[in-house]
Every structure is written in structure tokens, then in C-alpha cells.
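User: My advisor asked me to double-check a structure prediction for Signal peptide peptidase SppA before group meeting. I don't want to rely on an old file, so could you generate it fresh from this sequence?
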Amino acid sequence: MKQFFKFVFASMLGVFLSTIIFFFVAIAIMAAIISAASSDKAVEISENSILRVSLNYAIKERTDRSPFNNVSLPSMNSEKYIGLDEILLRIDAAKNDNRIKGIVLDMDGIGASFATLQEIRDALLKFKESKKFILAYSEGYSMKGYYLASTADKVYLNPEGSVDFRGLAAQLPFFKGTLEKLGIEAQVVKVGTYKSAVEPFILDKMSPANKEQVNSYLNSLYDYYLGNVSKSRNIPMDSLRNIADNYSGRDAEKALNTKLVDGLKYKNEIIDELKVKLGIDKKKRIKSINIEDYTSPKTEENGSQNRLAVVYAVGDIVSGEGSDEQIGSERISRAIRTVREDDKVKAVVLRINSPGGSSLASDVIWKEVELTKKVKPIIVSMGDVAASGGYYIACAADSIFAQPNTITGSIGVFGIIPNLQNFFNNKLGITFDEVKTGKYADLMSVNRPLTADERDLIQQEVNKTYDTFTKKVANGRKISQGQVDSIGQGRVWTGAQAAKIGLVDRLASFNEAITAAARKAKLKDYKLVSYPAMKDPLEAFLGSSSDKLKTWIMKKEMNEGYLLYEQAKQVMQQSGIQARLPYMINIH
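Assistant: Sure, here is a fresh prediction for Signal peptide peptidase SppA from the sequence you gave:
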């Protein structure tokens, strides 16, 4: 009896302490939410102001308007982020806002890939058409930060700072050795000489074909980068290559001598220069507003009944509903079907930012795109990545637009079936026995290797999927299936390369894709509407809070190793035949 009361008391104490902890966590969450909500109130913008642009966070395609979005777990701090859609809108609005006299870029760190940077860079160049100034100042510029900073009229650097101008590199991790130590074999079935998603699990370095394609698209990205910086800074491309090869920008004085920057100044000197530009007394304070807080002047509501829909397809392609950061075949198909059946919607832009995923889910979405093209214009705008399954869902559209530095192509398929027999038997001491009613009843079992018959069966399915993929690309692009195969084989291309081989129609920005869709539908006045609707804020927060906390802890403990963990987990958790980018591309 004594033991009984002891256990009961311990249980009650545990419940009581859990309740107390939950109570204080709930209060912290609510406080953070209230803080985030209050920060969303319109900030008053004074006359003669400057717009500050830093963007030192991961830039998503769309701004999450949930009050929970700005709550950072587990610190519960409130931090404001906006998506690419709002960044572009606000820079464009500032161009015609008489209260804004110029932009100050602080490009110390920026969380975006090159196609997203290109969208922002294009918007900054359009802003300059207003004859307003852009000034860049930082304690240090990364390659990505400098790409945006180079648009400025003047680029300044802290006298002790540096420009990390050293070219681009792509490093790929390989897990073959790890799997061998664990007694795990990755059984691979694929189509495509360049379809190298499987290489990290069966090789310890890049295959010659993979190295060829990485070298090709990396140099394409680099050439385009240097070309734009050369034009903005009036420095020959050969000189820029030399600066990178000698790492001249690492030293502030050398960065000045090579004309990467226009001057070495401290913050107080920058403030003095801005006061001169704004025409205010040295004793007065500069009025500024962050782009995250900036709201454009209210304009008259567009009374047009015509709609132009933007359907966002972002993330891995999976079957089912997916999420705001995942392309669920049901959710995205339903969104495309909705805009197709809505008579008010006259044209559609399908915005794709995806490395691909399930080939079956891709095909489900592809069908909705094909049906839509029959009744109204649908144009694809590619973001950072629209490859493999991402290209599959694009190929049926009327036209495909991409940035020169978009990653696309990768027309190929594969499957990985892990064989864990040695791991179970020799590492864990687990053995298996079974009874089955059919020859293939235990096909895809991970506790034994594939038989020759089973491997041949799966290869046939992979070949069939590749044939279907290339046939649909051929029909959509109006070229032969043989030609698709010659530029397919899983090979990755940049947008600039894809335009030359017929996979992309035009190199253009997101806004240019919208303009083209409106022109094709013969629209002069229209309202932009976005699909699919973003998830319910409370449901999304409660559903993801534990994942956010777990991710935060793992990132903190693993640092750069977290990316390797994510890549290994992502590939090993895949089920079914995949139309996916060869690997997690990390260019720095």
C-alpha cells in the first residue's frame, strides 16, 4: 500500500509540474504572439525618408501572414519576415512613393538562392529608373550580398571589413562509407546517366558524368553573376575573375583598389553622406523605415472583375495535401482546378520552386495544368529550382519563364530500396522469418537484398516512368521524344542553358511572367489573386511547433552537419519512384 501511494503521489506531482510548465510556455507563446501582432500595425512613414533593406533571413516565396509566423521557437522572440512577393511589391511601391528618397542596402548576410536574388536585383534596378539613389554599406559582403549591393550608386565598406569575393563552389556529401559501417546497402534502380541523386549512397565521390554537369551549371551561374556585376560596377569580367582567383576583396584596401567598393567608411561617415543626399541639417536625425515595416500609400481599389491567378507550388512534391512548404498533389491540383473553373480568372501563372519528388504526384498535377491550358492561358514562372518533378508539372504550360540562374531540367527518375539485412543481423542481432502467398508478396522488404527478378521488375517500372516523363515533355515542348532524351538523362541545367536547348521559352522575372499572362489573355485591368490559401494560422502553428523546436535543437547541436542529416533522411524516407533533383544543391 505504501508503494501504491508513493507511485500515485509521483504521478500526481508529474502531472502538476507538467501543467505548470505548460502554463508558463503558453504565456510565453501568447506574449510573443501579441508582440508579433502589435508589430504588424502600420508604421508611420515620414517625408524625406529612406528605405532600409537587409534581408538577413531565409526568403520564402510568399509572406506568411499568420501572427504565429514571427514567433521564433524556442526563444519566443518576435521577429518579422516577409516573402519574395512582398519584397518585390514594396520595392516597386517605393519607386513611386514621394516619401521615400532612396534605399540603403545592408547586405551583411542574406538567405536566398541566386534566382531569388535575381528577382530582387531586377526590382532594385527598376527602382533606379526613378532617379532615386541606392547606397550600399556593410561591414562585410558575401558573394550573394555583393550581388545585390553591386546595383547601388555607391558601394561602401567598413575600413576593417572585407568583400568575400572568391567565386562559387558546390560541395556534395557522400554517405557510402557511413552506410558500409552500419551494414546498410543502398539498392539503386534509375534511368539517366546524369541522374545522380543516388550517388551519395553508392559512391564516395562524384561520377565523371555528375562532375561534368556540376561544372557546367556552376560555370553558367558564375558567368551570369560576373556579367551582371561587370555591367553594374563597370569592371571587366576578366578583372573580376582575377580578383576572385587572387581573393583580393578579402582585404578592405584591396577591395577599394580593385574598385569592388567606392570607399571605406565608418557608420558615422555614411550617416553624414545620407544627410547631404536628403538635404537635411547635420544635427537632425535621418528618418528611415525597414522594408519589413514599409507600407505603400493607399491606392484606389481596382474595380475590375477580371482575375489573374498565381498558383504557388513550393517544396517537395508528395501525394496528398502537403503543406505551405510542400507541394501536395491533392492541394495543388485542387487549386489549379479551382482557377480553371472560375470564369472570373482569365489567366494563370504557376509559380514553381521545387526540386521534384514523387513521380506519381507530379503526374497528377501535370494533368490539371494540361486541362487548364485548353481553356485559359497558363504560364510557368520558375523560382530558384524547378527540376525533375518540378519540370514535370511545368512542361504542359503554354510558356515557361525562368531566371538565367534558375536550376531546372533533371529529367530522369530513380528509386532507392535500402537493404538493412547486415545492419539487423550483425549490428542489432535481429533476424527475420516469413510466410508468403505470392512470389512478390514481400517485394520492397528492407531486411534482405533484392532478387534479380525483383530488380528487373522495378527497373521496368522506372523505365516506363521515364518514358512517360519524356513523352509528356516532348508533347508539351513540341519536340521529339528522342530530343528530350538527349537533353534529359537526369541532367541539370541553369535557366540560361535551358533556354538554349528548348526547355525554357524565355528568361524573365516573376513580374514579367504575370505581365505576359495578362497580355495573352488580353487583359488591361485585373486583380491578382493567390492560390492555394495558406494554412489556418493556429492549426499550422500547433502542428509545427514541436517540429520547430526539434529542428532548432538539432541545428544548434549539429551546425553544418544538420544539412547532411537532412539530405540523408530525405532520400532514405522516399517511397515510390522519384522524379527529383540529383541532390541537395548547396552553392556558396
